Amino acid sequence: MYEGVDRDVLEAAVALATRAPSLFNVQPWQWQAGANSLHLLLDRSRGLTVTDPAFRELTISCGAALHHAVVALHALGRQVRVHLWPDPAAPDRLAAIDVVGSADPSQAELALAGAAGRRRTDRRQYAPDAVPGRILDDLVLAGEEVGAKVMVAEGDDRYALARAFAKAAALHGAREDYRAELAAWTGLSEGMAAGVSAAAAPRPGAQYGDIVLRDFGRVAIAHEETGSAQNAGCILMVSTSADDTVAHLIAGEAISAVLCTAELEGLAGSPLSEAFEIEQTRNAIRHEVLADAGYPQLALRIGWPTTARGPSPTGRRQVHELLHDLLDDHAD
Ligand SMILES: Cc1cc2nc3c(=O)[nH]c(=O)nc-3n(C[C@H](O)[C@H](O)[C@H](O)COP(=O)(O)O)c2cc1C
């Protein structure tokens, strides 16, 4: 067994993992540190019972945190082996990262870790300029390398997605319980450790080109717009071949990989999940875009930012609240 993972290395990995995107920034994760391993657990106490009753998106969020932790460990010179959902008898124990060796980090690994730390969800309008095909190919590859399918939605596929987002926004808008759940996590001040700050949210009812954004409600100070209202940017859709816990973790790893790669290229990005949260619209996407083969998990809006000033940052919980010692019955 490889010996010698200092606790501060594991703490640094968890610190970067806290920067991962999560639905409404709920950060539904806990970590446990073993002698040579990090274990990721789903924190069900942070569940969103109306928006995400099956914990699908919370598991996707944990997959993104898992990918961030692995990126951090690579940059810290550690080689790792990842086990997804290692023990179905302990369903909330989502993943184990075993540290199996050391190696000097490559420039690419260091750059990716830097991008993971800088990345923010950018819900603003983007510039009208197209994203070159070479970069889109890299984004697709980044997501596919972790086992998901990533497509750039164009033509009829994009039309079907746009229709599903508009329908989902209307269905959600009519639900008092959904709006109450969203409001509890939105419009918070920038100093809060979780939730979406008012300044990071779009104007209520915003639509960029063909895409209707999630309505975060009447936030006090919506972000400033300087981009093109006519064009939402590129829409990438992440799907998986199954629809279980492992598939949701893979989808989360993929969105992290795509968003961090986009950040490296200087692109802005924002997850869009509303159309995937309602059975009717998710089924429509599955049928119309995937011809019932595979499971759509989430979309990403990608485009060029119009200003060097990044979007408003969101808060995070502290490492000491999230990282605990591994319990004996799961000791490595
Ligand atoms: C599974 C998932 C679904 C998300 N859905 C949306 C969405 O529909 N609309 C949106 O604006 N942001 C969405 N986000 C982005 C989160 O709100 C964002 O990651 C969180 O507020 C933390 O902010 P940050 O990404 O800037 O660090 C989603 C993120 C994840 C992981």
TrEMBL record:
Gene3D superfamilies in the cross-refs: NADH Oxidase
Superkingdom of origin: Bacteria
Gene Ontology molecular function terms on file: oxidoreductase activity
PANTHER family assigned to the protein according to its UniProt record, in alphabetical order: NAD(P)H NITROREDUCTASE RV3131-RELATED, NADPH NITROREDUCTASE
Protein name: Nitroreductase family protein
Species of origin: Saccharopolyspora shandongensis
